[in-house]
């Protein structure tokens, strides 16, 4: 059982109970990572998904009290043209006003997507994923007016915008890179005219298609529009969350051909908490709440290790009633039912909360981190390198506090899909130019913190050695104690 005592704006106690197996750690237990409220964190790498409210597949009011205690300030919302304009030329913003006003009042920062189509217009596209973009002259004119009205209404509360969602999906003539590029261009011009300081995310690529992305970038570059965007978003659901790292780097390399400064943003990703076909991506695996928590935190920390903003899909289970998904999509950090009411937080809620509490922008990534198996290594004075006592595939990323330079290392086994057990390997690590005074070990999945005894670590000049550290397929941290909120 993992208990979380944290307060939101109403000082409500949030308790996470889990029957999932916990990691066995042979070190003295110190305590738990203390949650940090989202409005206590200036900025971080994280975004939490609050999608599908535009299609009434989720209920914002059912889960809003869980947002601030999670520790993530930026929330992803979908604007919903069809929900807002049910009669031509008449906008009903009441539903979206309520959500954005409430979120902003809690110190949250909406990232608002302009989508989907609107079937009240001939050639207006559909209101669900993959249903098609607007393409007729009448519909595109209406789209422009809707975009202008939305940006004008929310420009004082929303800085971050996104254009469409996974436009490359769908069996329609409007899912080509040429057409999606055209929609992106006409829409960003409207946004920037009304709100010049707006930050706009483009493409929103559903699964990584390198040829599609290359064509999209090439068109925007040729028309001198690519520089208008703040970032390019992609989604990529893979069973092993570390398996797409190379593909993401290839996508980034293609983007750099056209704009060396433009960043990637991982805009939507998550894993289910149970098995089931028809529940959306990644259904063909025996997921549990444990493997979901491992997947989400590995994906978050892998994105962080590659300097990519990371969005978690999603805050609560999604009760689809139309579109390609027909069953409850159980990728939420909160368990919900078919009536969209929250039942309880899952283990992944706690695990994501732990990542959010520790990793904000007071830390910087150690970019000169390398591994070697040699016993004697000639090292530059400023280099940071590590050795490991295994040839098994591990992921290791290093971070240091921007001011005091004390360090945190994230470690996990990346060889396979996250398992539903906790098989541990006791491994040794040596960090050259390590900076530790009182190191601790953190199990990210539960948030439990353990003292690393003196017999398990020592310093030899500029090398810090750690012995018999339990490592598994969920992230653990070797961290300076002062960087962990206990």
From TrEMBL:
Coiled coil: none
PANTHER family: ALPHA-L-IDURONIDASE, BETA-XYLOSIDASE-LIKE PROTEIN-RELATED
Protein name per Swiss-Prot or TrEMBL: Glycosyl hydrolases family 39
Native species: Pedobacter jamesrossensis
